[in-house]
TrEMBL record:
It comes from the Eukaryota. It holds the Pfam family Pkinase_fungal. InterPro entries: Kinase-like_dom_sf (IPR011009), Pkinase_fungal (IPR040976), Tyr_kinase_AS (IPR008266). Residues 278-355, 709-772 are annotated as: Disordered. This is Fungal-type protein kinase domain-containing protein. Residues 731-752 have a biased composition (Basic residues). PANTHER family: FUNK1 11, FUNK1 6. It comes from Psilocybe cyanescens. GO terms for molecular function: protein kinase activity.
């Protein structure tokens, strides 16, 4: 995976110049000078680490170079001496350093998946790596890392606090000052509650400090002279190896791990505590706001948006994504996420004086949970890792299956890092409360302290608060639903779920929200026994927007969605004459068609193994023109190569009707683009269309349902699954269960984490892509 990760981070690297005294200055209250005077490895008078300087002198005498392999042991001894001294003084979590240059650690990948990302020429770049070996690894245990014992002789990324790389001054060059990115990618994958990964590249003389986070890689310059500036070096080693914030201060908001995620001893999955910011008072405030009905005054949706930028200042932000079982393991494309420039903002008059939205959604601040007293604490027991986004940068989405520790209610917890100027997903979910066909939120937590700029400022005092690529962490709790719609139990089950999800999209559209990422894993089966309207639900509002936002014409080229389900107009934005029309509800309806088609072309019945018709590979092509060409052919002939299970008049009639509508709408867009100087705005499209197209779509589905109800049903019960493991909890944050002692029968065991479930994550989200 290493080449692919390099591509991911190639435009996300930056340097920041600072004084070394500003690096981890929160630890300046530690007796570091005293340690250096007392440490037998350091000569305080000569200001040098004895073994390292001896290696330098020997190399000079022999007119040779210091060998990298000769640095591992002395560096390990120095780092361990720091831990031994300050662990006793600080009474922190267990941590130790291990030479792992010859001890590769397993990657967590889907072994049947071939990942690829585009290179600069737009060609696929492939790579799969099973193991990597950091030169040195700072390992740890305790409730913030794991709930199982750790074999110290078998290091795992799940227990790695910081992977370190070792070079020599002679071999170090600009390119190698950053470590192999795949090391840090694995930390994020195998430690899903990771906020950032701090590390150093060490030589016999210097330490180069780096921080990997959801915004990319930050390199601090100049490097630290580990001999003459040993105080800064020791302070940095303490900083990068600290799990829980600053020394003695225990500032949980600065920690590289989420302090709200903790393991109880002898459990595989953690508990998550959430300070719920959705209070009954806030709920009432939101529900009192008027619905989007085109009858009142407009207001600016995104109050955090910047001032309007000049033309040509747009900056597209591409987010590489992983791949899973569906739609096809062969592609992990580029998931586009809107940049500052794409996020619409109004300048002057509102876009449409007939639209009113909830003022509360603009005015709510990012809450400071450390000072707010009215929040309620909810505790959840995690039962499964549903999904972990397998990239370093971007939203870093993590989904946990869990149950409420008090009520036993099943929930889905979603963590993500949104771009600071994007509207928070929870704000949209507040507006869709009790809306049929749409996933429902139970609780949320959103903290401005949990942001990239906050972490970077903690690591390097003085880092600018106005950082333009900032991301903010949020956690939402959703009602638990079924699996992806591809796990249908019968034809009627599939049609019911499909119909209600489309109706849910209609409800969103009529309330003034456009989803923009309709895909097979964002349409879920409803809970057992769900009534009409909720037999299928639409989830994931990361890419959703309000229809009344203002955007510059050039920004119509910026498109979002999951590649396999993107519409032809989205894929072909640049082929329109002049400025292309906005991405709208018709593009989402076309995405719904591709979901149904995907199932009919790949699944020969309920719970059947996924087939892979060759032409479907092109639906995920990184080249937009290839993808759009094969989809155009499908719209013209939508019933060729259907699986036998779906090769009947009911489904063929439905597919032909929906495909005919989608193709007609695409041709109309092309005509409008060629005849008009300026395309219509999204709000203009909304005012004109209303629910007309949705209703036509739904009539076709309802006709298919009516016909299918008259057929002999082919109900197939889902395969029996083993019951979930019982989780015994004896929760106590201050429990001594995680303490580690040296020596005795447990000398090679430390209390720590069990890696993520061995079967890997459940149904993955799909590879995302921006249209070319």
């Amino acid at each position: 995976m290493r080449p692919a990760v390099k591509v991911e981070l190639r435009n996300c690297k930056e340097s920041y110049e600072t004084d070394t005294k500003n690096i981890y200055r929160t630890h300046d209250d530690l007796p570091i000078e005293q340690f250096l005077r007392e440490c037998s490895l350091y000569d305080h008078d000569s200001v040098e680490w004895k073994e390292l300087k001896q290696l330098i002198r020997e190399a000079q005498r022999s007119q040779s170079r210091v060998a990298e392999s000769s640095l591992y042991e002395p560096l390990c001894r120095i780092i361990q001496a720091i831990f031994d001294y300050f662990d006793e003084w600080q009474d922190l979590h267990p941590r130790w350093v291990k030479d792992t240059h010859n001890n590769p650690m397993d990657h967590k990948e889907e072994t049947d998946v071939l990942y690829f990302i585009q290179n600069e020429e737009g060609e696929p770049l492939t790579s799969v790596t099973a193991k990597t070996a950091p030169d040195l690894s700072i390992m740890g245990g305790g409730p913030y890392l794991s709930g199982r014992e750790i074999d110290v002789d078998t290091p795992q990324y799940a227990h790695c606090i910081s992977p370190l790389e070792v070079k020599t001054e002679a071999t170090l060059n600009k390119a190698s000052r950053t470590s192999p990115e795949s090391l840090y990618r694995q930390c994020f994958i195998q430690q899903p509650h990771r906020r950032y990964v701090p590390t150093v590249v060490l030589t016999e003389s210097r330490a180069h400090v780096h921080v990997y986070d959801r915004s990319g890689v930050l390199r601090l310059t100049p490097s630290i002279d580990i001999h003459a500036d040993a105080v800064a070096f020791v302070r940095t080693i303490i900083g990068i190896s600290t799990v829980f914030g600053g020394s003695k201060k225990n500032n949980e908001f600065d920690a590289p791990f989420d302090y709200n995620v903790q393991w109880v001893a002898d459990t595989d999955y953690p508990q998550i505590q959430i300070y719920n910011q959705w209070t009954s008072e806030k709920d009432d405030k939101e529900s009192d706001s008027e619905d989007f009905d085109g009858s009142s005054e407009a207001s600016d949706w995104d109050s955090e948006a910047p001032e309007k930028e000049s033309e040509g200042s747009e900056e597209e932000e591409e987010e590489p994504d992983d791949s899973g079982e569906e739609p096809n393991g062969s592609y992990a494309g580029l998931e586009h996420e809107e940049s500052d420039a794409e996020i619409e903002h109004s300048g002057g008059e509102p876009a449409n004086p007939t639209v009113q939205l909830s003022d509360a959604l603009y005015q709510d601040p990012e809450y400071d949970c450390s000072t707010t007293t009215f929040l309620t604490l909810n505790l959840y027991d995690v039962t499964n890792m549903r999904f972990v986004r397998r990239t370093v940068t971007g939203r870093g989405t993590v989904c946990w299956d869990a149950v409420d520790a008090e009520t036993g209610q099943a929930v889905l917890i979603k963590d993500s890092w949104r771009y600071s100027r994007r509207i928070a997903e929870w704000k949209l979910l507040m507006q869709t409360k009790d809306m049929d066909g749409v996933g429902q939120m139970i609780a949320f937590e959103d903290r401005s302290q949990s942001s990239i700029v906050h972490f970077r400022h903690f690591i390097c005092y003085g880092f600018p608060r106005s950082y333009s690529h900032n991301r903010i962490f949020s956690r939402i709790v959703l009602q638990a639903y079924g699996q992806s719609i591809r796990h249908f139990d019968s034809k009627l089950h599939l049609l019911y779920a499909f119909r209600d999800a489309v109706a849910g999209h209609r409800n969103l559209w009529m309330s003034g929200i456009l989803h923009r990422d309709v895909s097979i894993d964002n349409v879920l089966l409803g809970q057992d026994g769900s009534k009409e309207g909720n037999r299928g639900v639409l989830i994931d509002f990361d890419m959703a927007i309000k229809v009344d936002r203002i955007r510059k014409p050039s920004q119509h080229l910026i498109r979002t969605g999951t590649r396999a389900f993107q519409s032809i107009a989205v894929l072909n934005a640049r082929v329109f004459e002049g400025v292309p029309p906005p991405q709208d509800h018709l593009d989402d309806l076309e995405s719904f068609l591709y979901i149904l088609a995907w199932i009919c072309l790949k699944h020969n019945g309920p719970h059947s193994r996924s087939m892979s018709p060759e032409f479907l590979d092109d639906w995920e092509s990184p080249k937009g023109h290839v993808c759009s060409a094969v989809k155009t052919q499908f719209l013209i002939q939508p019933t060729t190569m259907l699986q036998q299970y779906f090769n009947n008049e009911i489904f063929k009639t439905l597919l032909k009707a929906l495909a005919g509508m989608c193709y007609k709408h695409y041709l109309e867009k092309v005509t409008i683009s060629s005849e008009q100087e300026a395309p219509p705005t999204l709000i203009d499209v909304h005012k004109k269309a209303q629910a007309t197209h949705h209703d036509a779509f739904l009539r076709c589905i309802d006709e298919a349902i009516e016909k299918q109800q008259k057929e002999k049903e082919d109900w197939v019960r889902p395969p029996v699954t083993p019951p979930a493991k019982s989780v015994q909890r004896g929760y106590s944050k201050k429990s001594g269960l995680h303490k580690v002692t040296r020596g005795g029968n447990s000398k090679n065991k430390r209390r720590g984490d069990h890696s993520d479930d061995d079967d890997g994550p459940g149904p993955s989200k799909r590879s995302k892509a921006s249209a070319e």
